[in-house]
Design brief:
Strand content: 15-25%
GO molecular function, one term: RNA binding
Number of strands: 17
Keywords: Exosome, Nucleus, RNA-binding, rRNA processing
Mean pLDDT: 80
Structural class: alpha+beta
Distance between the termini: 48 Å
Main location: nucleus
Pfam family, one: ECR1_N
Strand order of the largest sheet: 8-9-10-12-11
Subcellular location: Nucleus
CATH class of the largest domain: Mainly Beta
């Protein structure tokens, strides 16, 4: 039976739907010039054009004026002296930048960048550090010196802290952190030196493909839900890991309780809450709204619509208007498509 490969549906971007993630049209070069009729066949001599799908080992072009980019390699030289061809080394779509041809993979792992907010899972507890899975080619490192100690005291870590390292994070724990540095081999080093980072609890974990979360100013969202669900926190990790949880108000945000506590005690209470393993009681109404938000995310991803704050809010409103309840309608193609279409319509009209 012959193998047929169907081109994937393009990502639907906020704003101009004709632009790709980097803001470059596939049929334009970086200078914004359109492809002239004279040079149009240059990268189509083998039946390939920008935006087309290729498989590993397939010839992209045999025109010598084109340079090979990521995801391509040059074929072996021929005995008759014909020029070498540019061949795809992976399955993906052709991307053109001036005279550079590269292949964008259909699926890829997350590539860390400094400043990214990521959600990760502890893989291993080592001496003075943790190994963290962040969906990258290499596991990330979280140093003992890169976390807040109970009490909020800035001091040098001692041997006592090393012995108590599992009281902070242990294998299987989920956490939200920020990429601090990158090593020469691409391994990321994380830090949680902020009260908005730390161990995750009171929620549900889900994964989507890397690249489906749009980079935003803030990746920690608080959504006011309906039907008595209250506020829900959403941690949109750039690495495709997402955490949806009941909203908790840190003591540092103020309130009657914090006013009666001294500053030293306030920092201590806040730090201890970060490393707590005890989940709070979550009402059925809040659980239902958390599940609804998760279904909205799955429906958007299934429709190749990137996730951001605007689309989440519009998708949630659309789900309420469609009266979709339950925990699995996000995998229902028809129901999800109705929600996505209504959300996109609201975005265009708004």
């Amino acid at each position: 039976m012959p193998l047929q490969i169907i081109a994937p549906a393009p990502f639907i971007e906020a704003g101009d739907d004709e632009e790709d993630e980097g803001g470059v049209r596939l049929d334009l070069d970086n200078e914004g010039d359109t492809t002239m009729d004279g040079d149009a066949p240059a990268h189509r001599k083998s039946g390939r054009q920008a935006g087309g799908i290729v498989t590993p080992g397939e010839i992209v072009t045999d025109d010598p004026q084109w340079m090979r980019g990521h995801g391509t390699y040059l074929s072996a030289p021929t005995a008759d002296g014909n020029p070498q061809s540019i061949v795809s080394s992976l399955a993906g779509t052709i991307s053109k930048t001036n005279k550079l041809l590269s292949i964008r993979a259909l699926r890829f792992r997350y590539v860390p960048e400094i400043g990214d907010l990521v959600v990760g899972r502890i893989l291993e507890v080592q001496t003075k550090r943790w190994r963290v899975d962040i969906a990258a080619p290499h596991s990330a490192a979280l140093l003992l010196s890169s976390i807040n100690l109970p009490g909020g005291i800035l001091r040098k870590r001692t041997s006592t802290d090393e012995l108590q390292i599992r009281t902070f994070f242990s294998e299987g724990d989920l956490l939200v952190a920020e990429v601090q540095t990158l090593n020469s081999d691409g391994q990321a080093s994380l830090h949680t030196r902020s009260l908005k980072y730390g161990k995750l609890r009171n929620g549900v974990f889900m994964t989507i493909d890397a690249g489906m979360v749009r980079r935003m100013k803030s990746h920690v969202l608080t959504m006011n839900t309906s039907n008595g669900g209250g506020e829900v926190d959403i941690y949109l990790g750039v690495n495709g890991y997402i955490w949806i949880a009941k909203h908790t108000t840190p003591l540092t945000e103020g309130g009657a309780e914090s006013k009666s506590i001294s500053i030293t005690r306030l920092e201590e209470e806040a730090s201890e809450a970060i490393y707590s393993n005890v989940n709070e009681e979550i009402s059925p109404e809040t659980r239902a709204e958390i599940a609804r938000i998760g279904c909205v995310i799955r429906a958007l991803v299934k429709a190749n619509v990137k996730i951001d704050e605007e689309m989440l809010n519009l998708g949630y409103e659309a789900a309420l208007e469609e009266f979709l309840e339950g925990f699995d309608w996000g995998s229902d193609t028809e129901a999800g498509r109705r929600v996505v279409d209504l959300a996109l319509t609201k975005r265009r009209m708004g």
